[in-house]
Amino acid sequence: MHGSVHPATETLNDHFNGLCLALPNVAGVSLVDENGEAWFDKQSDSTQLQMMGPGRFQAYKDGALRFGELSTTHHDEVYGDMRIVAPLKDVLK
Question: For 23-53, what is each residue's pLDDT tens digit?
Fold first, then answer.
């Protein structure tokens, strides 16, 4: 979700033990050079495969999986809403 824009009223929804942080979106100031998808698409196939695993990698290359579908929200009884890796079976339904 690197580089995605959210309203200031939205609570940051990170993953368990995540290191994500919200940066202010200031007119005329760019704090992020590129979003996560642009960065990922510049990586070699071998790097993408290593990061995604074979099933997600093939689905992504085939167009059956969009980059934004790689994560989803999960509600944890202790920590509340958090981001998790979306199960491939759920994405490909």
Answer: 777 788 777 778 889 999 999 999 999 999 9
- DSSP labels for 22-80? -----TT--S-SS-HHHHHHTS-HHHHHHHH-HHHHHHHHHTSS-GGGSEEEEEETTTE
Task: Show the tokens assigned to 40.
Answer: 């990922």
* pTM of the entire predicted model: 0.70
Distance of CA 90 to the CA centre of its chain: 16
The total of other beta-carbon atoms located within 10 Å of residue 52's CB is 19
Reduced to 3 states (helix: H, G, I; strand: E, B; else coil), residue 84 is strand
